[in-house]
Amino acid sequence: MKRVTGVTASLVALALVVGAQPALADDNKHEKLSDKEIAKSIKPIDPKIEKMDMGIKKLETERKEDGKDIVSLSSDILFKIDAHKLSDNAKKKIGELVKDVPKNAKIAVGGHTDNVPSKVGNKKLSELRAKSVADAIKAARKDLKVEAKGFADTKPVANNGTKSKPNFEGREKNRRVEIRY
User: Fold this and answer.
1) Confidence class of residue 12 from pLDDT cuts 50, 70 and 90?
2) Cα 167 vs. chain centroid, distance in angstroms?
3) How many alpha carbons lie under 13 Å from residue 47 in its C-beta half-sphere?
4) Contact by Cβ (8 Å): 127, 150
5) Mean per-residue pLDDT for 98-111?
6) Distance CA 177, CA 150 (A)
């Protein structure tokens, strides 16, 4: 959010300086600003703000495993905490992700959680999330044969840490839904 604010503030400042130019030129009480004065008044964007782009996470990562394509979707981006319903935008993005899957392909959708207990239980939550993604795939591509399964925290891709020493980055990687074909 800071990046948007910083960029927005810079653009507003630029618009004020540039936008003020014609008004100042028409007003006899004020002198016209030179191009040099305008250029001097424009400040560069703070490099710390520029680096914040690196913190924006992608919805999906792709890899190959045992000859299969695997698209791993971040549950943190797809779902609210302890929830399994997809937004319309998430459904649309999932549809875009499977548009190039070969016709009539078999797809396995696997839901995964970290090791932190959820209100409905990690097994149930992983099943519901896998089903939501599978339903979005079926809606986008009726030709695909889709099955959904929940694995809870039984197949981590990173260390979850412990209750006393949590590994938040590892837990985030483990909260995912995988599409295999």
Assistant:
1) very low
2) 20
3) 0
4) yes
5) 96
6) 9
- pTM greater than 0.90: no
> What are residue 157's phi and psi, to 5 degrees?
-105, -5
- Specify whether the CB–CB gap between 85 and 128 falls below 8 A: no
Relative to beta strand 145-150, strand 106-112 is: parallel
Q: Is 137 exposed, middle or buried (0-12, 13-18, 19+ CB in 10 A)?
A: buried
pLDDT at 129 over 80: yes
The alpha helices in 27-121, defined as continuous H runs, are: 35-41, 47-51, 75-78, 88-97
Across 144-158, average pLDDT: 97
* 68-74 sheet: strands from edge to edge: 60-65, 68-74, 176-180, 106-112, 145-150
Q: Is the pLDDT of residue 52 over 80?
A: no
Whole-number Cα distances in Å, 96 to 93, 104, 127 = 5, 16, 22
Indicate if the alpha-carbon torsion angle 96, 100, 102, 107 is positive or negative: negative
